Amino acid sequence: MTNDPDRSGLADVEAALRDAFERRASAVDIAPDALGDIRRRIAGRRRWWRLSALRTRGVAMISMSTAVAASVAAIAVGIGSCSPATPARPRPNVAGGPTAAVTTPPATTPPPTTPPTTPPSNTAPPSTATFPVYYIGANDKLYREYHRATAGDGGTAAKVRAAVALMLDGRTAFDPDYSSRWPASASVRSVSVVGGVATVDLHGATVNGYDPVGNRAALQQLIWTATAFSGGSGGCSSTAPRARRSGRAVSRSRASYIARRRSPYWRRSG
Amino acid sequence: MTWDGWPMVAADNATGWTADEAVARLFAVHYRSLVRLATLLLADRGRAEEIASDAYVELHRRWRHLDDTDKALAYLRATVVNRSRSALRHRRVVEQHAATSRFDETVASAEAGALARIGHAAILAEVATLPTRQREALVLRYYAELSEAEIAEAMGCSRGAVKSHTARGLAALRARMERWA
Fold it and tell me: What is the pLDDT of residues B35-85, one digit of tens each?
């Protein structure tokens, strides 16, 4: 009949698949009170938000003070770590997971020693590095995971790029409850690191429009992820297609300030 | 666009529905098929329903930014695919063995002739061993009957990637089915 055995073989597979899926799916029915269940969860969430507005205030103050300390130390670290030659320090903080982002600061980390004079970016093979990536977990709080991935030439910008790329796609999180507040279409266009400030240019970052809480959470993710690789240094400016995320340099201390003012991001480890 | 933290005041968007209304209406039309979609992706009935209802809770949260029902449906689908993927990854971490056994036990209850049943079970078992993205592409295409663009949106990848996942998945299945024949 057909003289293309390839196609005809596939058509059989397609038909078999359709049939198998359909039969399997039709055997599945839904719980009797599924809608009621969803409504109860939505109602529970509303209550949680009202409560948390009161409850998190104390916590956020603590976050604030540690964050400020971190940013003071960060200036030195930031300057030292501008060089792409500084290798990533894999952090063996296995307790990592959901510990508080703000308690990891490099405040006690000595600034890296004087960087070598020539960056080895031309000759270095693709290197892997371990870096913290920040995701959004329950109730829009920020959680950290340590990921290992290839980071281009191993330079600072390459590491930021790799970390931010992981961060954008919430599916890369090890914990299924963590996600990213960036839209699926978001991708990294370029990353440059100059003078201790990382500039991250994102593409496709506004598709569905976002709720304010989600927007801020996304921004927090970016700031913390982009600044974490260098040991928690300084500032980060993001340029995204729409004004709100565009061009303004923000630092972790600023991020915590926003967090304190706006929303309960920070979860302290118990 | 407000920037003022505290959310959850049900607000109208372009559809003229409140978030509560939207959840109820979209529930009536799509919930069952989303549960089925998650079941095929996951081969885990209980978790599938949980994931579908998660998607509605999220939809409620984001409703004011989803200005038409098509977008809302796309959002629900993408959320289900995404969360199924996460759940699967999590499950693989906790239990290292293959997910195939789950397919077998549930498929056996489908109404069909014995021979056909074995065929379906075998195909689904093979599908369960495919890489996650390939399985997603196949389920979204041959169960949900979505277009390439819709699949790309639901999976959060490009159309080219959808094409290659689908082609590779089909080729792998064909190779295995030929082995039985």
Answer: 999 999 987 787 899 999 999 999 998 888 887 777 899 999 999 999 999
Same domain, B31 and B61: yes
**Same domain? B134 vs B176:** yes
CB-based contact A199:A161 (threshold 8 Å): no
CB pairs under 8 A between A and B: 157
Residue of A nearest to B119 (CA): A20
What is the pTM assigned to this prediction?
0.47
Nearest CA-CA distance, residue B74 and chain A, Å: 11
**B82–A179: do the CB atoms touch at under 8 Å?**
yes
Domain that holds residue B80: 1-106
Q: φ, ψ for residue A128 (rounded to 5)?
A: -100, 150
- Across the interface, of A37, A174, A208, the residue whose CB is closest to B71 is A208
The reply to whether B143 and B100 lie within a common domain is: no
In this prediction, the answer to ipTM > 0.90 reads no
List Cβ neighbours of B123 (8 Å cut-off, separation of 6 or more).
A16, A17, A20, B173, B177
B39 assigned to some structural domain: yes
Interface contact B174-A10, CB threshold 8 A: yes
> Number of structural domains, chain B?
2
Min Cα distance B19 → chain A (Å) is 10
**Minimal Cβ distance to A27: which of B31, B110, B173:** B110
Three-state SS string across chain A, please? CCCCHHHHHHHHHHHHHHHHHHHHHHCCCCCCCHHHHHHHHHHHHHHHHHHHHHHHHHHHHHHHHHHHHHHHHHHHHHHHCCCCCCCCCCCCCCCCCCCCHHHCCHHHCCCCCCCCCCCCCCCCCCCEEEEEEEEECHHHCEEEEEEEEECCCCCHHHHHHHHHHHHHCHHHCCCCCCECCCCCCCEEEEEEEECCEEEEEEECCCCCCCCHHHHHHHHHHHHHHHHHCCCCCCEEEEECCCHHHCCCEEEHHHHHHHHHHHCCCCCCCC
Residue of A21, A22, A185, A262 to mutate, interface with B, max B Cβ within 10 Å: A21
Mean pLDDT over residues A97-106, rounded? 32
Residue B161, token pair as written in the block? 């990637």
Helix, strand, or coil (residue B67): coil
For the record, the structure tokens of B127 come out as 């599908």
